[in-house]
Amino acid sequence: MLQVKNLTITHRADDRELLNNFSMVLGDGDKAALIGEEGNGKSTLLKLLYDETLVDNYVEYSGEIIRNGARIGYLAQELAPENRGLSIYEFCAESTAFYDLTPKELSGIAARLMLPADFFYGERLVEQLSGGEKVKLQLARILMEQPDMLFLDEPSNDIDLDTLAWLENFIQETKTPVLYISHDETLLERTANKIIHIEQIRRKTKSRYTVAAVGYAEYVSRRESGLIRQEQAARKERDEYQKQQERFRQIQQKVEHQQNAISRQDPHGGRLLKKKMHAVKSLERRFEKEYENMTELPETEDAIYIRFGEKNVRPNGKRVLDFALPELRAGERLLAKNIRLSVIGPEHICIVGKNGMGKTTLLREIAGNLQKRSDIHVFYMPQNYEDALPMERTPVEYLSKSGDKEEISRIRTYLGSMKYTADEMGHAIGELSGGQKAKLLLLKMSMEGCDVLLLDEPTRNFSPLSNPVIRSMLKGFRGAIISVSHDRKYIGEVAETVYELTANGLYKVEREQA
User: Tens digit of pLDDT for each residue in 274-313?
Assistant: First the structure.
């Protein structure tokens, strides 16, 4: 069992409090999902609970972390650079437990992860593995250590639909308590039985957290109902307060008028009015105290206010793309052949396929084809944001064209609506979280009046509570969308047509299979 008592975490660089007085328990049978916006400290909390030395250089903390001698297996969000050049065998051999296990025990771990029995002795380099294979390899080395609990940081990123289904089953079936971070709503709905929600409100000046021993769908439903009730109560209290204030002002004005009109020859009446005014002042202080204790209007951080205008439209019947590629290659490696894709009008298309099939490579080829044309306005959102964003510039500089005061003011308003603080608007883009970079690209799309969007995993860096807003925005986009995604909610709600990329080209997928 893991116990956390009164944990407070503060970011050293900007003295921002990530968590205040946080407490939780991870016990037998718990599948606890850690959710919240990017930059709120989810990964920092996971690292801290695993090993304080991983965060010592950038946060300060107080409180108790009681591990009770438990062995914790930690899956990092990204492989360490020094591991990428290792072979599979060398990677496994770095764990002393690898040599302590019998071939039968290793084979059992491989079977549990749906890997070949001889996988751990392979000579392929780790960096050459698919996203799903990398996740399974790291989990295998963790399982060799026979952990008492598992900490998983974004295990659902960069894995295909088949591996996502496997991961869901793994989390559901394991008897080991799991604390994990994921943006995949479907995975959360199918696996979590406890939700830990970290928020930054009041322009990221106050931290807030919720621990709920319920599934994700029930948590979202309860949260929405609670926010509605809170808003209704808060508005009702404010209406009553305004009525009280109006009655109070009438009484106050009446007493003040009487005080001004009373004759100095009537000291008794003067004393009575002083008592009345004293009572009025007491009433005023009582009202002020009641106002301070009013139910707060609900504040959440999942709302993103952005929409596409009338410029972002492709007429029905207008051909956007007629693409043919005899061979799709990554260097010398042949990924697929005989690829054809036709897009007409405001179609919303999603390409799926197994890890390593070349979906990102294909989308990059399509982007190169479309960006040469002058009759359409294309925006390409790559999977690696560094390919599209100037990391040394600020968000305001990136979005600004003229640099005049009116434009800068408008951009700051837009960024504010997407939950950027004033400080973050002035930070270099390279210092921002993945989610903040993704929001910046979405805002650029909206401002530039694009009518064709090329999106590589567009929802991968948004919180599960923000993603419904992103999907709604893209679903309503009246131009063409050509995308790659493993997000099942996105595929179901935004994509009108789904194609699977195989070694022999693109094949249309029936909707119930997508």
Answer: 777 777 777 777 767 776 666 666 666 544 556 666 666 7
476: pLDDT strictly greater than 80: yes
Structure-block tokens of residue 199: 């928020």
Q: Can you tell me which residue has the tokens 């995993």?
A: 457
Segment 83-93, tens digit of pLDDT: 989 999 999 99
Q: What value does the CA radius of gyration of the chain take, rounded to a whole number of Å?
A: 29
Region 2-223: CATH code: 3.40.50.300
What 3-state DSSP class applies to 506?
A: strand
Q: Which ranges of 304-393 does DSSP label H, i.e. alpha helix? A: 359-370
The residue behind tokens 């009518």 is 451
**Torsion angle of the four alpha carbons 408, 410, 413, 417, in this order, in degrees rounded to the nearest 10:** -120
Q: Which fold has domain 319-509?
A: Rossmann fold (3.40.50)
Residue from 51, 48, 60, 47 nearest 17 by CA: 60
Q: What is the rounded distance in angstroms from the CA atom of residue 509 to the CA atom of residue 503?
A: 15
Asked if 347 and 497 touch (Cβ cutoff 8 Å), the reply is yes
Does residue 246 contact residue 275 with C-beta atoms inside 8 Å? no
Answer whether 2-223 and 319-509 agree in fold. Answer: yes
- Dist. CA 413–CA 399, nearest whole Å: 12
Domain residue ranges of the chain, discontinuous segments joined by +: 2-223, 228-292, 319-509
Separation between Cα atoms, residue 94 and residue 111, nearest integer Å: 21
Length of the chain: 514
Amino acid at 506: L
